[in-house]
């Protein structure tokens, strides 16, 4: 298969030849044969670096919170999950697969709660195996931390390692700083020396004194786990004073940890307990990038109590990031695409990824000719190719009626 007349994020005109599940050749310009893509934008697979497959589509089976307050929505979500059987979670998570595939997210890192048991995680692992020929699901055993991190939770963490690609948690929700630090160190202990990754819901709060990410960074440095740790959300970062932030930034960069932002739910959570003026609640993306920190993007929830609007489309997450992080000027459109492609691949430790000969033929072709147009219009994808096979295709006819 040859797809000719494509446009890269950098604005280069190329054609791509696919043989089997690999990119066999990349031509400069328009190849003499092949299907004409008419200058459409092409990227490698989009990467959703922060998702919750075991929380998607909960509104299919449970009611929303009766009042639009974050804490009540969160409580309703937790109560809903507690009522569901693991096989119910599996069915709702399976529905998610179509949404990811049709929007071009062929790599998804999902956090799956393991506080009370690992049954949900087992079912998500089953889903991962079932759809492995179409989508790569990376599983993080997630200690949600709404109960105390005791021996039972610790035991679940070690059991989860049999199925999960890594472990994470929310240390800031433990009853004291000492408890949160203990939890972090035990999570590091569990994966040290193993081929596993760490991804913490780090400092997901407005409180400027919430600084567990500095402990995570310190442990990564001490244990020489460079590049194997991710900090998700880090919304407290927008409340840090400048002196502290600049010192923090130095060690964050040296640890080679990735920061994963999920702007849709971060905006909902931030400022939830404040009167006006309210905080914006996004990690300082432009400052992080300028300092050489790897920043990736996640969509987070799909149609549940915390995000009833979600459809799992990374372009929506990118659009929200543009508005919320002062990245709305056109040159930043290319940067946002980096966050949801190559930067995500770095955070997930992917190999054979990207528009290069010999890499996996996991491609997204857009109904747009530039990154800015794609983010501005957020149209259905023109074509999604997974492992060399077309798995989704849309036909959009533009008609003027006046």
UniProtKB/TrEMBL annotation:
Pfam family, one: Amidohydro_1
Highest taxon in the source lineage: Archaea
Domain Amidohydrolase-related: 41-390
InterPro entries for this protein: Amidohydro-rel (IPR006680), DNase_TatD-rel_CS (IPR018228), Metal-dep_hydrolase_composite (IPR011059), Metal_Hydrolase (IPR032466), Metallo-hydrolase_Enzymes (IPR052349)
Annotated GO MF terms: hydrolase activity, acting on carbon-nitrogen (but not peptide) bonds, in cyclic amidines
PANTHER family: CYTOSINE DEAMINASE
Protein known as: Amidohydrolase-related domain-containing protein
Organism: Acidianus manzaensis
